[in-house]
Write a structure and sequence with these properties.
The chain is an alpha/beta fold and about 190 residues long. It is built from 7 helices and 7 strands; from the N terminus they run E-H-E-E-E-H-E-E-H-E-H-H-H-H. Helices cover about 40% and strands about 20% of the residues.
């Protein structure tokens, strides 16, 4: 069993924020692979299904970014999912817009959602870091990540999301470097 987690904030005015890119990835996976209808469970919106004959759960935590770990811990304890079978999709300021870097474990690099997950389940899980780039102006980081994507970024974001979902089979096999390079080569 695998658990896909998309990080974001659950308010309607957050929907198109840079910080909500994880939610967008989960929505895309749900649609492409016809996972079940989203149900409110484990303090999140949960879907289930099979992808390439593997049982998959996908969740968008409704606990807000800073408390994402609460939702994930409840879910993995209930379904007896090992942390190493958790894959988290999230925004990353330190990566150029549209680039992908997948890795297992490591530092949170100051990302509050990742810090919360580390606190509740440890660091032994995979992360798909989706680059949102750094702000061009002197805007505060917290304001930048909570700002909506620009119009030209929205079009690119659709392609990025499509490329990630198209390459999901590689991710299911936990070939993180191959997944990153394949997605990046499609951009």
């Amino acid at each position: 069993m695998l658990l896909f987690v998309g990080l974001g904030n659950p308010t309607p005015n957050s929907e198109n924020n840079r910080h909500n890119i994880g939610f967008k990835i989960i929505d895309s996976i749900n649609k492409k692979y016809s996972l079940s209808k989203q149900k409110p469970k484990f303090k999140g919106l949960l879907t289930t299904g099979n992808i390439n004959k593997k049982k998959v759960y996908a969740i968008k935590p409704l606990t807000f970014m800073n408390n994402s770990g609460i939702c994930i811990r409840e879910l993995i304890e209930y379904f007896k999912i090992d942390a190493e079978n958790v894959i988290v999709f999230h925004d990353d300021l330190d990566i150029d817009f549209g680039k992908i870097k997948a890795k297992f474990g490591g530092s949170s690099a100051g990302h509050n959602g990742i810090e919360s997950i580390d606190k509740f389940i440890g660091k032994d899980y995979s992360r798909v870091r989706i680059g949102i780039g750094k702000p061009n102006s002197k805007i505060a980081t917290s304001d930048y990540v909570l700002k909506d994507f620009d119009e030209d970024e929205v079009l690119k974001l659709e392609k990025i999301t499509e490329n990630i979902t198209d390459c999901l089979a590689i991710l299911l096999d936990k070939k993180l470097d191959l997944f990153s390079s394949t997605v990046n080569n499609k951009q």
